[in-house]
Amino acid sequence: MNDQVWWFVARSTGLVAYVLRGVAVIGGLLLSARPFGRTPPPEWTLDWHRFVGALSVVFTAVHLVAIYADSYIEFGLDDLFVPFASEWRPVAVGLGVLALYLLLAVEITSLLRRRLSRRLWRRVHYLSVPTFALATAHLLMAGDDASNSIVLLTVGVLIGATMLLLGFRVAQLGRPRFLRDERRRGM
């Protein structure tokens, strides 16, 4: 087996995990903001959102295993799980570690949603956007592919879609509740 296999696995799974996380955030904003009304159906969007979110956790886990297994830069468990402990690009890796912990908080509370108050679940779920922001900074600062035009285009599209939907959602929150409720009922 080639010495660089783990490095390629780390790069590719990191990129896939990032895209999946961005798509999951966009899916969550589509669910909460409903910019297109009930199209696509909320049930379908919720299933898709949950699946993509879980898949992003899986790819993040494989990303961490590959980084640990790669022998080019020796990463210990403290480098992977203690923010800013890494000697290699400590800020970039530290932001990735923080993104990991926020991602785990969002995903674990989502799995426990039925056992948590709606208020607590929602407050933790709001961390999805900062998680995506930290993951973006991690990719751009630590990723070897950060200067690749396709990667930059993908990052730009995901950030643009997220910001557009987030702006739409925030604008909705500024409207009186009865107007928001009328829109949901299709009035």
SSE sequence, one letter per element:
HHHHHHHH
Number of helices, where a helix is a run of at least 4 consecutive DSSP H or I residues: 8
Radius of gyration: 18 Å
The average pLDDT is 90
| Portion of residues within helices | over 70%
State which percent range the strand residues make up: under 5%
Cα distance spanning the termini: 62 Å
The SS-based structural class is: mainly alpha
Quick synopsis:
The chain is mainly alpha-helical. The protein has helices at residues 5-33, 42-69, 77-81, 90-111, 118-125, 128-142, 149-174, 177-185. It is globular and about 55 Å long.
Account of the protein in words:
By secondary structure, this protein is mainly alpha-helical. The protein is built from eight helices and no strands. The protein has helices at residues 5-33, 42-69, 77-81, 90-111, 118-125, 128-142, 149-174, 177-185. It is globular and about 55 Å long. The termini are far apart.
Task: Looking at this protein, list some descriptive labels.
globular; about 190 residues; mainly alpha
Helices, strands, pairings?
Blueprint lengths: L4 H29 L8 H28 L7 H5 L8 H22 L6 H8 L2 H15 L6 H26 L2 H9 L2
Helix pairs in contact: 1-2, 1-6, 1-7, 2-4, 4-6
